[in-house]
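Input (structure):
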C-alpha cells in the first residue's frame, strides 16, 4: 500500500465540499490505491458544521481515509500538504461590484499564499476554485514564491465538461466520443469554449454543426451555464463543480488519455500570444504529474479576438488587486 498523502481543502463545510470530500476519500481523485489524509480548513463560525461533515466522512468507513483534520488555522491545514484544493471564498453579495469581490477574495488568497509558502510541501499541487478563480490563483502564486508556479492552477474543467455536454446534446452523440474540447481564458463570461479542434468519434465537430451555432449559441450557453444553474437551483453549481475538481486533479496526477486533452487554467508561458505569467485556461495534456500546453493549433480570427478579450479581462483583474502582491 502507498503512503498516505495530505490533501488540504478550504471552504470544507460549504456546498461544493459536501460532494467533493466524499469522492476524494473514496479514491475518485487520486486512485483506488492512494490513501489520503484530509486537512480541512474553515472559518471559525463554520467549524461546528465541519465537525458534522467529519462525522459523516467517518461513518462512510472509507478504507483509503486515514485521518480527517478540521481546523480554522491555515498553518495546520496546509502543514506538509501535497495537494491544495482552494474552494473557500466569499460569495458575491447583493449590490457587490465585481471589483469588491476581487478585493475581498483576493485578500483570502494572499493570506493563504503566505501560509502555504511557509508550511506546505514545496511540490504541492494546487487547484483554485473560489472565484475569481484565475486571479485568485495569480495572487496566491505571487505570495508563495517557494512554490513552483506550474503547480498553481485554476479550475476550468467544469466549463470544459459543460461544453462537452452541450456539443453531445446538439449532435446527438455520446460524450465519450467527444475529444479535444477546449476552454481558453478566464473562468468568467469572457471564457472561450472552442470546438474548432474537437472531434466526435474521430470526425471534425465543426463539420457537424453550423458555424453560427458554434459562435453565437454554444459559446454563450457554456459561458453562462453557471448563471443558468443558479437561476434554476437558487445556488451555484456544487456537485458538478466538485466533479470538475476531481477530473482536473485526476488528469493532472494520473495523466490524460492518449489522443485527447483537457482544459486547465495554468501559468502562461506566452503560448498563443497570451501574456506570460497570467493564469490562463489552455488545452493541456498531462503525464507523470505534469502538464504541457498543446501548441500549434491554428485558431480563426474570431477565436483569437475572443482569447485576447479574455486575456484583457485577466490583466484588468490583476491590476485591480496589485496591492495584494509585490
Ligand atoms: P459555499 O458558500 O457553500 O462555501 C464556501 C465556504 O468557504 C463556506 O463554508 C465559508 O465558510 C468558507 N470560507 C470563506 N472564507 C474562507 C476562508 N478564508 N478560509 C476557509 N474557508 C472559507 O460556496 P460553494 O458553493 O462551495 O463555492 C465555493 C466557491 O467556488 C465560490 O467562490 C464559487 O464562486 C466558486 N465556484 C467556482 C467554480 C469554478 O468552476 N471555478 C464553479 C462553482 C463555484 O461557483
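Output (sequence):
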Amino acid at each position: 500500500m502507498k503512503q498516505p498523502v495530505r490533501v488540504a481543502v478550504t471552504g470544507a463545510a460549504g456546498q461544493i465540499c459536501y460532494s467533493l470530500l466524499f469522492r476524494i476519500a473514496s479514491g475518485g481523485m487520486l486512485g483506488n490505491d492512494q490513501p489520503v489524509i484530509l486537512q480541512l480548513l474553515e472559518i471559525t463560525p463554520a467549524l461546528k458544521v465541519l465537525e458534522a461533515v467529519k462525522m459523516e466522512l467517518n461513518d462512510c468507513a472509507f478504507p483509503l481515509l486515514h485521518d480527517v483534520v478540521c481546523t480554522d488555522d491555515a498553518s495546520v491545514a496546509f502543514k506538509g500538504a501535497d495537494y491544495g484544493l482552494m474552494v473557500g471564498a466569499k460569495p458575491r453579495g447583493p449590490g457587490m461590484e465585481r471589483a469588491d469581490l476581487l478585493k475581498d477574495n483576493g485578500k483570502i488568497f494572499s493570506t493563504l499564499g503566505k501560509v502555504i509558502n511557509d508550511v506546505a510541501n514545496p511540490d504541492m499541487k494546487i487547484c483554485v476554485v473560489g472565484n475569481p478563480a484565475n486571479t485568485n490563483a495569480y495572487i496566491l502564486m505571487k505570495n508563495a514564491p517557494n512554490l513552483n508556479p506550474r503547480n498553481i492552477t485554476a479550475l476550468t474543467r467544469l466549463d470544459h465538461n459543460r461544453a462537452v455536454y452541450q456539443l453531445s446534446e446538439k449532435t446527438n452523440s455520446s460524450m465519450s466520443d467527444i475529444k479535444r474540447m477546449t476552454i481558453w481564458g478566464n473562468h468568467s463570461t469572457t471564457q472561450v469554449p472552442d470546438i474548432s479542434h474537437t472531434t466526435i468519434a474521430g470526425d471534425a465537430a465543426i463539420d457537424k454543426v453550423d458555424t453560427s451555432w458554434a459562435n453565437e449559441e454554444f459559446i454563450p450557453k457554456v459561458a453562462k451555464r453557471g448563471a443558468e444553474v443558479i437561476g434554476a437551483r437558487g445556488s451555484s453549481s456544487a456537485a458538478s463543480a466538485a466533479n470538475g475538481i476531481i477530473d482536473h486533479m485526476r488528469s493532472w496526477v494520473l495523466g490524460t488519455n492518449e489522443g485527447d486533452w483537457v482544459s486547465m487554467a495554468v501559468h502562461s508561458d506566452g503560448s498563443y500570444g497570451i501574456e506570460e505569467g497570467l493564469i490562463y485556461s489552455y488545452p493541456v495534456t498531462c503525464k507523470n504529474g505534469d502538464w504541457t500546453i498543446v501548441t500549434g493549433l491554428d485558431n480563426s480570427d474570431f477565436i483569437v479576438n475572443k482569447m485576447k478579450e479574455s486575456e484583457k479581462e485577466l490583466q484588468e483583474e490583476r491590476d485591480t488587486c496589485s496591492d495584494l502582491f509585490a
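Notes: The mean pLDDT is 96. The chain is about 40% helix and 20% strand.
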